[in-house]
Automatic annotation (TrEMBL):
Signal peptide: none annotated. This is Enoyl-[acyl-carrier-protein] reductase [NADH]. It comes from Rhodovulum adriaticum. Pfam families: adh_short_C2. Belongs to the short-chain dehydrogenases/reductases (SDR) family. FabI subfamily. It catalyses: a 2,3-saturated acyl-[ACP] + NAD(+) = a (2E)-enoyl-[ACP] + NADH + H(+). Coiled coil: none annotated. NCBIfam families: PRK08159.1 (NF006019).
Length: 264
């Protein structure tokens, strides 16, 4: 059968372990014939990421801290030594001080606001800036966002403000790079239990709430995010750019769930 990503080369950023959303995406892309490279943050993660990469037939595993311009330059320089052309990138990276992912948004500090915006928003722009130079028409970039960008969600706080900016940056870059045939999109994933998610206050309750109140009456899996990523990164999504695509069991459309109302 024909594979959707045969002959495509993609860089996956943000793989920490086999619970990462990046892992769900990488697996689905590899299943569809894509050739992959990975970046990871800090030496401690290498022993986790390298074996996962190997499972998908990749030995291109490069360290990169997206907060550092030099580190980003080195990543793309090294990637360029392996590949002369890049077809897609996946940015599955976000960070904020865990202490401020609980309590009130209004208490966010200036330092954490700047750091959260830098790592969770600007890093995608910095990555796309460099990746686009290696891409031709048909190139595609994808980032991960959350409904907390659009509506107030408990504990999401400064991360919600950052995701709103990230989604706006997707639209601006879609316009900038559309002329070159490069597409830029985001997937707004429903809650999934990952390392990053476990830093959010009451995350188990958020998971349960989404399970009970989403139209599909369940949570989504990292594999389901992976399948939507294949659509957006492959030729299936050739007419789609600047989009924030919800993979959330429909949760984003709910105003109020239908239940048998009590007599009042
Ligand atoms: P994860 O912990 O598996 O991945 C987060 C990754 O960000 C890690 O690999 C970490 O190393 C990386 N990272 C953080 N700071 C970095 C830096 N300075 N340089 C390089 N890498 C850095 O968690 P995840 O849930 O898979 O998160 C991936 C993306 O998905 C994030 O943007 C997150 O906000 C988004 N998202 C997650 C959920 C969810 O419920 N898990 C829902 C919607 C969106």
């Amino acid at each position: 059968s024909m594979k959707l990503m045969e002959g495509k080369r993609g860089l996956i950023m943000g793989l920490a372990n086999d619970k990462s959303i990046a892992w769900g995406i990488a697996q689905k892309c590899a299943e569809q014939g894509a050739e992959l490279a990975f970046s990871y943050q800090g030496d401690a993660l290498k022993k986790r990421v390298a074996p996962l990469a190997e499972r998908l037939g990749s030995n291109i595993v490069i360290e990169c801290d997206v907060a550092e311009e030099n580190s980003l330059d080195r990543l793309f320089e090294e990637l360029g030594q392996h590949w002369d052309k890049l077809d897609f990138i996946v940015h599955a990276i976000g960070f904020s001080d865990k202490e401020q992912l609980r309590g009130r948004y209004v208490d966010t500090t200036r330092d954490n606001f700047a750091m959260t915006m830098d790592i969770s928003v600007y890093s995608f722009t910095a990555v796309v800036q460099r990746a686009a130079r290696m891409m031709g028409p048909g190139g595609a970039a994808l980032t991960l966002t959350y409904y907390g960008a659009e509506r107030v969600m408990p504990h999401y706080n400064v991360m919600g403000v950052a995701k709103a900016a990230l989604e706006a940056s997707v639209r601006y870059m879609a316009e900038d790079l559309g002329k070159d045939g490069i597409r830029v999109n985001a997937i707004s994933a429903g809650p999934i239990k990952t390392l990053a998610a476990s830093g959010i206050g009451d995350f188990r309750y958020i998971l349960k709430w989404n399970e009970l109140n989403s139209p599909l009456r369940r949570n989504v899996t990292q594999e389901e995010v992976g399948k939507a990523a294949v659509y957006l990164l492959s030729d299936l999504g050739s007419g789609v750019t600047g989009e924030t695509h919800h993979v959330d069991a429909g949760y984003h459309l709910v105003g109020m769930k239908a239940v048998d109302a009590p007599d009042i």
